[in-house]
């Protein structure tokens, strides 16, 4: 990773391959100078920031393309440097030729994430906002877009900086005590300090807890559909997806491997996994499938258990549920094939709470099922104003902050000297700072920005 920001970088900002237009972005002190060397049109140096200009890009006498050039003069740009965006026709040949030409004129090919890295280094974004840029680009549902957007707009950062400020105040009061160590004074009221730490811990705990939902929203909620062979799992999956995807057959045990499909309910992606029938495996291939099914259930965030309402006894149902349900795994029980029932659901059919009657084949109660899936996974719904942690790095930093603050609490309760207290508070501040980038290392930056695409 190159941390020099005194050169000018260039990259294609739009996806590689051909398209209607391709946008080439330059950032750095010489962005205008380099562009002007190859731009036939107006004098760019006398143009205002945030203006667009028509002209040609020429390599000597050869006109490469007709383009639009957008100017963003420092510091009013994404990177806070001079930025030029050249919109060319989206031919791979033209784009490559223009980029090569710009490099010959003094630009350097940008590394992955380098534009956003510069935005961070120049103070345009903090680290968690820079990460939100990557999340926003990768978002594939309303909920994941919303979480990333909230982070990009600084919701999370503001919350953290308020926490930081509290701790900084106390750290400095305690430092002051150290200066007057001989006089044995307490500037930082221990009662107030304790209350502030408890308040901060409450906020931290909420943020840490939000990761489960935040991560599920970002990745899609992993949902396993399980049940005995022929219960109608594949048919149900198809009904939910409204397409003929999984293989449906009358022969027990045909869904050998697991199939994963994405279903969007109320803006949240559910990754539905159909599993091989859960029963005593009769051959090895199937044994692998069954083992996979249990493994998938162990890894999943939610379970949909399907049974054939015409062919399952109360005992079988109880045995399956005892087998499948682990800990607090949200589980939805679906009684399938209600179309085969003579009258209304008879007394023979087991009645359990959180059970829904459907006919996968006749697509009855499928919309209701979708809503039940959503509410089983997200019991309280998503509060649009609540910050959701979606990033493992942030989670780990918050957990470390929490651990340090618990030490601070212990230090207040079993009085330790001010210098130890100050150390623990500083440690907490350090971990909090890692999230927004107040505290960074080259390794950390490298790790974050190398995961970006080039041009971002
Ligand atoms: P799986 O082994 O659990 O995946 O079961 P399948 O989806 O392959 O279904 C097994 C058989 O049950 C197929 O013949 C389906 O057509 C049938 N089936 C599935 N759902 C229903 C339903 O709601 N009603 C009826 N009548 N048949 C169903």
From TrEMBL:
What are the record keywords, sorted?
Answer: Cytoplasm, GTP-binding, Hydrolase, Magnesium, Metal-binding, Nucleotide-binding, Potassium, tRNA processing
| Residue sites binding GTP per the record | 230-235, 249-255, 274-277
Is Cytoplasm found in the keyword set?
Answer: yes
Q: Which GO terms describe its biological process?
A: tRNA methylation; tRNA wobble uridine modification
Q: Name one GO cellular component term.
A: cytosol
What the entry lists under InterPro entries is as follows:
G_TrmE, GTP-bd, GTP-bd_TrmE_N, GTPase_MnmE, MnmE_dom2, MnmE_helical, P-loop_NTPase, Small_GTP-bd
Cofactor names: K(+)
Task: Please state the Enzyme Commission number of this protein.
Answer: 3.6.-.-
Q: Which Gene Ontology molecular-function terms are recorded?
A: GTP binding; GTPase activity; identical protein binding; metal ion binding
Fetch the PROSITE patterns from UniProt.
G_TRME
Q: Which residues bind K(+)?
A: 230, 249, 251, 254
Chief place of localization: cytoplasm
Cellular localisation: Cytoplasm
Q: Does the keyword Nucleus apply?
A: no
Q: Whom does it interact with, and what assembly results? A: Homodimer. Heterotetramer of two MnmE and two MnmG subunits.
Protein family according to the UniProt entry: Belongs to the TRAFAC class TrmE-Era-EngA-EngB-Septin-like GTPase superfamily. TrmE GTPase family.
Q: Which NCBIfam families match?
A: mnmE_trmE_thdF (TIGR00450), small_GTP (TIGR00231)
Known role: Exhibits a very high intrinsic GTPase hydrolysis rate. Involved in the addition of a carboxymethylaminomethyl (cmnm) group at the wobble position (U34) of certain tRNAs, forming tRNA-cmnm(5)s(2)U34.
By what name is this protein known?
tRNA modification GTPase MnmE
